[in-house]
Design a protein that fits this description.
Radius of gyration: 13 Å
Number of helices: 0
Strand order of the largest sheet: 1-2-5-4-3
Helix content: under 10%
Order of helices and strands: EEEEE
Structural class: mainly beta
Strand content: 35-45%
Length: about 70
């Protein structure tokens, strides 16, 4: 997968970012109180969920992404 998928659930106050195919999810591991790591069967992180993420206003959220040279 060469794309990152980002989902925000305003009602559930949850942000989910997928770096790979969500169908590969085999393990969910709580990283801290507000962060869950989704992993494939080999233990590689393929997604992150951030819970209790509330925007400062009711306005639509804007997102910006930049690719960094490696």
């Amino acid at each position: 997968m060469e794309e990152v998928k980002v989902f925000y659930d305003r009602l559930g106050s949850s942000l989910i970012i997928w770096f790979d195919d969500p169908q590969k999810e085999a393990i969910c591991e709580e990283f801290d109180e507000d962060t869950v790591l989704m992993k494939d069967k080999d233990g590689h992180v393929i997604g992150i969920e951030r819970v209790n993420l509330k925007p400062k206003s009711a306005s639509p959220m804007k997102w910006a992404f930049e690719e960094m040279a490696g």
